UniProtKB/TrEMBL annotation, chains A, B:
This is Uroporphyrinogen decarboxylase. It catalyses: uroporphyrinogen III + 4 H(+) = coproporphyrinogen III + 4 CO2. Gene3D superfamilies: 3.20.20.210. InterPro entries: UROD/MetE-like_sf (IPR038071), Uroporphyrinogen_deCO2ase_HemE (IPR006361), Uroporphyrinogen_deCOase (IPR000257). GO terms for cellular component: cytosol. Pfam families: URO-D.
Length: 348, 348
């Protein structure tokens, strides 16, 4: 089966589809008992760096739910590590990168040399997952956006106010731009490596784009993602940009040449379709906490989303953010069944 | 001097003004050394509940910066406390309300009886602040929105995913609605008490409105604020609704009859003016972290905001969220001076 026959890719290409494809951000994760079983034996970073383990957890949700796309199990912070920062994951405290990137010297110390070699375990994982998927399900590769990566690299640890990156932005904007340029190069090379290893689609996560005021969004995040999209266009894999931050940011990505734009759950999907649906396919956007709810309400919210596109192609069903770790697995199964049944009826 | 001669109120009423008024959300707060000096001696809740102390800290930023409006020093969680929850402030861990409101019984246990009596220390503070302000600066009273208060009451403590309120909303929506109705009554009576005691304007903080998907915003937050606005219209004080959550929520407040809408810093002020500027005055919206920046960039960002209204009235300058505790006081002075000078020039 060739790439163009995948439901996920056909929906992005706005080709005729028999139902709406579905996958879930963080679908390989803690809400799955089989994932927990792996994590009981290996820590997070070991799973990321061991192709066999990354493959196993990538395939788990495909086996259980038959999602219409698999996504490489990895972490966006492997790039800062490859550039020279020390990466640690503190249980229940999130990731830590050290030393923080604050002054000119810190930026200069980062080195892109040998990036692909340092991240070859990711290429190995991609190859192994592809052979495990046996051409039935396409594999999405991914990266954080330059701005999102810079946020983690500058803050060093989870933050509420993003003081350090904001201080740099409002005090030494040229320093931040230099870092973002370096990251644009690193992300481009990293994603090309994934594509060469067999990734059949790419998603760039701009998780922290929404901490930028809209008038600065393109300057610090949007334009660098656009540069990456241009670089990746030498391949033919579809590219999705997912920026958490509402309709005003989405609007600024309309000229990005991305094949699909991710819509967060704080944005109205019908508004998004009206605003940027002519420029790209859309992915999303169920509020992840709907999965704490009753089956009746899950169904109603799914219907709400599916009716936005109706019989039209150009939509991939997903949550509007990653699935939460304590979501009942039963509700995920119910969601998948509901999207399948309901969208099959709509498209028939 | 009568109410209609205040710069802040004239700007809301879209009357001719000689410059743009400015005040800052959380202007009485930890970034001020004189506030810290008070807090070294008294804990937060004692300051809220002692009219003399509340008055002192309310007046501090007026003395130092001559802001164009004072805002009552208090906390939005005094309402849940008056309704029967236990309120504690843990140093560096935020507020705690117990027991959480989760089931039907928890809702039934809340009692609105004697609300004004229990909160009479707030009315006392309003009277004392008014006499301290000596009619030179108007006093803004405030409350949290019903939805925002419900969020704190249900979660009990700071949260990232808002699991409990979302679970109630997606599982037992009628229970949440009942709680919101009770809070609408409580907030209305609380604000009328503040107005009767001398508050010359009102602001309702819908801090957590943005955790609602836009299609559920009116149902769980917007419509209850609108009900409160209607109730307060028996007085003539201007009412501001501040909902953090972007242009799509702002649009849903256009028919609220509020005199002013607060614009958060993640929303473009020019977009906001185009969208809802015909319905209400606008307040905002400098990114609070701009105050970590250089004077050159602070000036540029202020100019950006002031140019949106130009010589037109209908704008009150403010941050797009509360001021952060570690902002240099010098930068606040520079901001105030810049807004005054620049807007005086624009309006001359």
């Amino acid at each position: 089966m060739s790439g163009q026959d995948y439901l996920y890719i056909n929906a992005i290409r706005k080709k005729k589809i028999e139902r709406t494809p579905i996958w879930i951000m963080r679908q390989a994760g803690r809400y799955l008992p089989e994932y927990q079983a792996v994590r009981d034996k290996y820590d997070f970073i070991t799973v990321c760096k061991t192709p066999e383990l990354a493959t196993e957890v990538t395939l788990q949700p495909i086996r259980r739910f038959g999602f219409d796309a698999a996504i490489l199990f990895s972490d966006i912070l492997v790039i800062p590590e490859a550039l020279g920062q020390k990466l640690e994951f503190m249980e229940n405290h999130g990731p830590k990168l050290s030393p923080q990137i604050l002054n000119e010297k810190d930026v200069n110390r980062l080195s892109i040399e040998g990036l692909e070699e340092k991240l070859s375990y990711v290429a190995d994982a991609v190859r192994l997952i592809r052979s495990g998927l046996d051409n039935r399900t396409p594999l999405i590769g991914f990266s954080g956006s330059p701005f999102t990566l810079a946020t983690y690299m500058i803050e060093g640890k989870p933050t509420r106010n993003f003081k350090h990156i904001k201080t740099m932005m409002y005090k030494e904007p040229q320093r931040l731009i230099r870092l973002l340029q370096l990251l644009t190069e690193a992300v481009s090379r990293y994603l090309l490596m994934q594509i060469n290893a067999g990734a059949q689609a790419i998603q760039i996560f701009d998780t922290w784009g929404g901490i930028l005021p809209p008038h600065l969004y393109n300057q610090y995040s949007g334009r660098f993602m656009k540069q990456i999209v241009e670089r990746l266009k030498i391949s033919s894999v579809p590219i999705t940009l997912f920026s958490k931050g509402g309709i005003e940011l989405l609007w600024q990505l309309k000229d990005s040449n991305a094949d699909m734009l991710g819509v967060d759950w704080m944005t109205d999907l019908a508004d998004a379709r009206q605003t940027v649906g002519g420029f790209a396919a859309l992915q999303g956007n169920l509020d992840p906490t709907v999965l704490y709810g009753s089956k009746e309400i899950i169904k109603k919210e799914v219907e709400n989303i599916l009716q936005v596109f109706g019989r039209q192609s150009g939509h991939v069903f997903n949550l509007g953010h990653g699935i939460l770790p304590d979501i009942p697995v039963d509700n995920v199964q119910f969601l998948v069944d509901t999207v399948r049944e309901m969208s099959t009826k709509i498209h028939s």
